[in-house]
Amino acid sequence: MADAPLERLSVIAEQRWGLFTTAQAVHDPSGCHYRCRSQAAVSDGGVGAIERVAHGVSRIAGAPVAEHETIYAPWLALGGATAHRTGTGMAALVAAGTPVAAVHGIGDFLLDFD
């Protein structure tokens, strides 16, 4: 029988590069947090339903590693996907600077002194 809590987290992860946060697992009404923690411990060896990506962020096992996961994971951990919008509809938490320029292929901000 399928694991309903993991299915719910899979739906979230499907919209977020295969990632979900510990907070999303903790707030799962079925108590997925404790099962996910034990499965994360198992997945350190490459086996299990979830894989730890960063502090507070996990990936559903089998989901591909996103190209810019090192930017996405901290953004998710800080609440970027769930933060309230400002009065003008803008996201309250955004990534900026060189990492975002790299994601969008804008400019060359790294100087080459060779």
The number of distinct β-strands equals 3
The separation of the N and C termini measures 59 Å
Low-confidence stretches: 40-46
Q: What's the overall geometry?
A: globular
**pLDDT averaged residue by residue:** 76
Oligomer: single chain
Counted by DSSP, the helix tally is 5
Measured as a percent range, the helix fraction is 25-40%
Q: How many separate structural domains?
A: 1
Question: Which percent range describes the beta-strand content?
Answer: 5-15%
Largest sheet: 3 strands, antiparallel
Strand order within the widest beta sheet:
1-3-2
Order of helices and strands: HEHHEEHH
- Please compute the radius of gyration using only Cα atoms: 16 Å
Structural class designation: alpha+beta
